[in-house]
Design brief:
Strand order of the largest sheet: 3-2-4-1-5-6
CATH class of the largest domain: Alpha Beta
Shape: globular
CATH topology of the largest domain: Rossmann fold
Strand content: 15-25%
Order of helices and strands: EHEHEHHHEHEE
Number of domains: 2
Length: 200
Amino acid sequence: MRTFFIIRHADKEIGNFYNSRLRHQDQPISEKGRRDAQRLCSFFAVKPIKAIYISEYQRTWQTIEGVAIDHRLAPVIDSRLNEIDNGLFDGKTEEELRQAFPLAWNAYLARKADFRFPDGETGAEAQARIASFLEEKRREHGDEDIVLATHEGLIRLLMCYIVHLPVYLRGNFRVDTCGITEIIYQPEYESWKLIRFNQV
């Protein structure tokens, strides 16, 4: 039975790390993040990991680097694991968002329907990315265990996909930095099963 381990990246540095190629901030992990990431090595030491996938953001690679070295695996970058694209929301304060994008901000707070971030994605679009990745890797890896290092918003959308909740309820999930989530595929039911959520 395959297990997919989903890791939120470690704590990140505060500051301006804008990356025009990625459109948004590309922060490295902090000193606290490095300490927390090191503990992942102990957790995965006895796991038979066969592949590691990361987003395009450096903090996902830095989070899982120790595990990759221990297992002699080269992490594969997949843009489908990038954080939800919050478009023009990125880097703005709450007050700036209220002033510039009142409709989108109110929709964000209401959690009653999906919406599009200005110049960004809807929840459904981002969820389709992670669902596509999940189903592709399920077929590709057979009974192999794999690790995904990704981002809080995308993990929340993945949880909605797994437990069949609408995407606008994603804010009901808390995902800690370096939190570990485990899912398995149940071929007899043609569905995923949540084994563990947000272990730290």
